[in-house]
Amino acid sequence: MKVENYILEKPLGKGAFGEVYLTTVEGDPKLYATKKYDRGEIEHTEAKKYLENEIKILRYIDHPNIVKIKDVKKSKKHFFVVMECCNGGELSKALAKYMEKYSHPFPEEILQYLMRQIVSAIKYIHDRKIIHRDIKLDNILLHYENEEDKKNFNIMKAQVKIIDFGFSCFMGPNGLRYTTLGSPMNMDPILLKKLYSRSKKMRQLGYNESADIWSLGTVCYELLIGKPVFDAEDMTELVNKVEDGSYKIPTTISYEMVSFLNGMLQYNSKQRLTASQLYRHDFLTKDVKQFKKINLEVISDKVNSGMINMNAVHNSTIWSIFNKQSESLLSTILGSAFVKPADKKEEQELKNEKQTLLQLPSKGIPGNPTDNKIDGMSKEELDKIEKNAPIKETNYVFNASIFD
To answer: What is the C-alpha separation between 118 and 111, in angstroms, rounded?
Structure first.
């Protein structure tokens, strides 16, 4: 199949509304992946809104660990979205292949390598007031620049690429969003409650970017343990397990790893670490060889002496049942204890970045000079600026009239 100068060579997979094709471009040695959408199936559905949303978001961002959009085309019957191709497949399949080959999930060294890239991408979008809302293993791909590394399954040479921004959104005017979207197994407890409950009051609960952090914690746990943190057969069981907050952490992992996980899997969203804090966490910044191993004797002493209060930590997701025989661990290690403080250089870079991102668009806002900055502006003005923020140009082209 040929769409202008794009040649759709062969199917790579099938989605809810069409297929994904390996794509080549005349005169271009790179490989691409094209999503083909049936216009008749999505034209008057929510799917079209999500497709438009994904294109809008991907035009706005540019990060090495986020899949890039190259072009969008349409015919009488189809939409075609051309994106960079990731030859390593989904992270879920890579985990399954690794477990089949080595009989255990990823060790901390590989997990650190992967999470550094994932957290970097999440920090990037959160800094730009974007929430992904569907972080899961199937929405994280791997790409190998070297065919030899791909053949040898050398994950430490793979590049992470986060995909599927159809459910993504900009943070609301009050910092909150209310729409219930995502995958239940990876869903923030508030979103899970909203999905499960018919209560009008529950449906009015809002959430922010910390929902991505919870999802990130579920991803991290599965990469480390090899199964979902809250494995359930149905929605009722899943909600009960999340509410109970009990999950096992093997004592073979490090304190840094426990802290990193706990910093994300906090039932109370306000107690979760931010993406910026995770980015500075010891688990991502220290040499794995320097990590501290769990000492059950120390934990046991703290429990017996009352330093760790069982009642205080029950019904929160920072603990698992303490039992030497089953090798699970009670942990009240706060994630922030292992987070390095932001240095002045980092704070200044972030300030400069936000200043650049949120400066007035070239057309300006009536009554304000075009070179005005964000200092002293009202929240309403900032919201308007953010909505009309200029798109950062990349080397990828985009047909803006695709949905006209």
So the answer is: 10
